[in-house]
Amino acid sequence: IRDSAGTGQARVLDVYVRQQLALERTEAAAATVDRAITAAPGSSEHHVIRGRIFAAQERWKDAWSSHERALELDDRNADGWLETGRLAARDGDLDDALRRFGRARDLAPDRIEAFAEAASLLSQAGRNEEAEEEWDALLREAPYDARAAIALARSRLARGDSGERTLELARRSLRFGGG
């Protein structure tokens, strides 16, 4: 979560909510976020966090509404774009998901999740050349990302490329924990 107000409150709230969700304390997390939204209704970050809770509860329409509200409040909220991309992917809308992941990536290039999720979707759709481009872009942003290195190495091997770059990617994945 990027805290647009710069107070750190949204980041603290996000960490708290993630912990509560991991402990399956969804209602406690929701009550805390609802209070935060009441106190700061214009915080797009709080609406993203609330949307994540709705998604954890499998309340998909509410998750969409919450994330869309976040983007209405701040269309430069990379987390809002990332989360709506996830929802679009879940709904099976590949093009919309990719557009939303692209917007998140453009707003926050260090959000490697946007690259990874787009690449994975492209791979699943059989659009391997585009997936390789996404994995490559992720590696430019995060050179030590083992999952990107192994995914790119596997894709290159699948198309018969066992050259030096493929070998380097496989070594990189092993060196940085990709298995």
What structural keywords apply?
0% strand, 179 residues, mainly alpha, elongated
Describe this structure as you would to a colleague.
The structure is a single chain. With 179 residues, the protein is mainly α. 75% of the residues lie in helices and 0% in strands. The chain has 10 helices and no strands.
Produce a short descriptive summary.
The chain has 179 residues and is mainly α.
The value of Rg in angstroms is: 18 Å
Structural class computed from helices and strand pairing: mainly alpha
What's the order of the H and E elements?
A: HHHHHHHHHH
Biggest sheet layout: none
Proportion in helices = over 70%
Proportion of beta-strand residues:
under 5%
Shape type: elongated
Sequence-ordered SSE layout with sheet pairings:
Layout: H1 9-22, H2 26-39, H3 44-56, H4 60-73, H5 78-90, H6 94-107, H7 112-124, H8 128-141, H9 146-158, H10 164-175
Helix pairs in contact: 1-2, 1-3, 2-3, 3-4, 3-5, 4-5, 5-6, 5-7, 6-7, 7-8, 8-9, 9-10
